[in-house]
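Title: Prediction job returns without error message
Component: structure pipeline
Severity: low
Priority: P3
Assignee: unassigned

Description:
Job completed but the reporter wants confirmation the result is attached to the right record. Sequence as submitted:
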Amino acid sequence: MNSKNVFLRGFRDGIPIGLGYFVVAFSLGIIAKNSGVAFYQGFLASFLNHASAGEYALFTAIGASVSYIEVALVTFIANARYLLLSSALSQKFDPKTGLTHRLLSGFVITDEIFGISIAQPGFINPWYMYGAFLCAAPLWSLGTACGILAGNILPLRIVSALSVALYGMFLAIIVPPAKKNIVIALCVVISFASSWALGIIPGLKNISSGNKVIILTVIIATAAAIIRPVDEDEKNKESAK
């Protein structure tokens, strides 16, 4: 399949992601409005920052009038999990993939784009990720800008309730591979249970959500890789398809 068709397929798969992003970004836009962020600033911030937790930390820090260094640090910490996602995704690229494509893929990665990309059989064509990003990212940015413009016209609880659709979409991404592979299914269940446990255990429940994701990802992924490593023969068969 040529790059154009792969790009269009990624763009198509990015439509439901973009619609979910718009709703979540709208609520973030209201937070940004309360922090004194202009609509064009919110649009640009969303286009460069592709994580809801990262943007929430960013807008909260701006509202608290902290220094630029503190804003950079809190945003870096909130988005640190993308270092892990990018590392995992890099294993799915053809070894011949150039550095430019690898860097651009790292920029466009989000939780959901990672989900649909890692689920692709065989090697990942970077143009698939570009297509999904160029559909989802403008809606993410536009949602933030619209939320800022709307201000506090809509009750925040109503807008926040609509964001449940994004989590439903993410479940739709992880359920199919979990149904096909018992190891993936167990990892998903263990991840849910561990995340819940970290939220109630004294001394651990105060860990930020971003750091929880990093800790659980490292521990669970490492354990799964050691206990049940990927069958290289099976992986090569998928790559050849």
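Comment from assignee: result matches the submitted record. Residues 3-34 form the longest helix (32 residues).
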